Amino acid sequence: ILIITLILLYFFRKLKNIQIVLLITILSIFFSPLANIIVYSLERINSPGNINNLEFDFDKIVILSGNENIQKTKKFNHLYLGGSNNRLLEGIRIHNKSKKKIIFSGSSLTKSHLREVYVAEKFFAEFISDNNLVIIDNKAKNTEDTFLFLKKNFKNEKYLIVTSAMHMQRCKLLAIKNEINYILYPVDFRANHENFFKFSLNLG
Predict the structure, then answer these.
(1) Mean pLDDT of the 82-102 span
(2) What is the C-alpha to C-alpha distance for residues 87 and 128, in angstroms, rounded to an integer?
(3) Rounded to an integer, what distance in angstroms lies between the CA atom of residue 118 and that of residue 152?
(4) Are 181 and 145 in contact (CB under 8 A)?
(5) Chain Cα centroid distance, residue 100
(6) What H or E segment, with its residue span, contains residue 90?
(7) pTM of the model
(8) Which pLDDT value is given to residue 34?
(9) What is the strand order of the sheet 134-137 is part of?
(10) Residue 172 predicted with pLDDT over 80
């Protein structure tokens, strides 16, 4: 958003002082530890999920999609899990220990008929032999849709929510809003937590 705003202001030759401020801000984010500090500040709110300390007092495991790569998965017949790799792997680990059902929510934004659940379905088919243990929500377009799906279909149950640490605060707010009983299980930590002042662009 900052870059687009800067380009538009430069193109229309408007507000040169604002252009300078925007440029400095963008450079500060890209070429300083600021990006890592911002991500670290959000991620540290919730402790990482730890399967060894987990009490299995929940009814289902909810894994949120991380925009898996359908095209590469279809082309190469490999599982390109994208941002869902840790979510799916940790979800399977928890499932194997707890024997709880998994709900995978596609949260798809694609306009084509290929939805992100295509990759997840292939993944679960490889690692879970009983199809009845996996519930696929392929209609959710965002996280709020996921929680509405849970509220409508499994209202009185308790869920273990597996998603990225950056995403957890939004999940918490939506769970409270929809009166969902939940446990948070953050994964996909992106920031350098050992040295959060260290410069890094690898936060995607």
Answers:
(1) 93
(2) 15
(3) 24
(4) no
(5) 21
(6) helix 85-98
(7) 0.78
(8) 67
(9) 134-137, 101-105, 60-64, 158-164, 181-187
(10) yes
Phi-psi region at 118: left, alpha or beta (left = phi > 0; alpha = psi -120 to 50): alpha
Only one residue has tokens 């941002």, namely 83
Round to whole Å and give the CA distance between 173 and 144: 10
Task: Enter the DSSP assignment of 118.
Answer: H
Both tokens of residue 193? Answer: 């937590």
Name the 3-class secondary structure at 105: strand
pLDDT at residue 195 greater than cutoff 70: no
> Could you tell me the pLDDT band of residue 127, with boundaries at 50, 70 and 90?
very high
Helix, strand, or coil here: 24? helix
Determine the 3-state secondary structure of 143 from DSSP: helix
- Cα–Cα distance, 178 to 135 (Å, whole number): 20
- 93 Cβ partners below 8 Å, 6+ apart? 51
Chain position carrying tokens 């260290």: 198
- Arithmetic mean of pLDDT over the chain: 85
